[in-house]
Amino acid sequence: MGSSISLVGIGIFPETISILHYLTSAAFFILLTIAMLIIGITMYFSNSYKKLGIIALFFSIIALVSPLTLSHLNGIAIPEAMACFPAFIWFMFFGLKISVGAQLN
Asked: What are the sequence ranges of the domains in the chain?
C-alpha cells in the first residue's frame, strides 16, 4: 500500500517540484522492492504458490541490482523501467492466476 501511495505522489508532484518528486519516487522504488521481497518469501514458503514466490524473489533482485548496474546511463528512465516492469509483469500474472483459480472453483 505504501508503494501505491508513493506512486500517486509521483503523479501529483511533477519534476518541477524536484524534491517532493524525488522523495516520492525514491519511496516508491524502495517500497516496491521491499514488498516484492516480502511477497516472494511468503509465497516461497507456502505450498500453493512456491513458483510465483521464486519469480517474485528473482524480480526483486532485478529491482535491487538495476539502479546499480545501469547508473552509467544518462538519465534515470532505464533503471526505473528495469525496476518497475518486472514487478508489473509479476502482478499481472498473479492476477491472472487468481482470476482463473476463482473461475475454476
From this structure: 2-104
Burial of 83 per CB tally in 10 Å (0-12, 13-18, 19+): buried
The pTM assigned to this predicted structure is: 0.77
CA atoms of 31 and 46, how far apart (whole Å): 22
Q: What is the 3-state secondary structure (H, E, C) of the chain?
A: CHHHHHHHHHHHCCCCCHHHHHHHHHHHHHHHHHHHHHHHHHHHCCCCCHHHHHHHHHHHHHHHHHHHHCCCCCCCHHHHHHHHHHHHHHHHHHHHHHHHHHHHC
Residue 89 pLDDT > 80, yes or no? yes
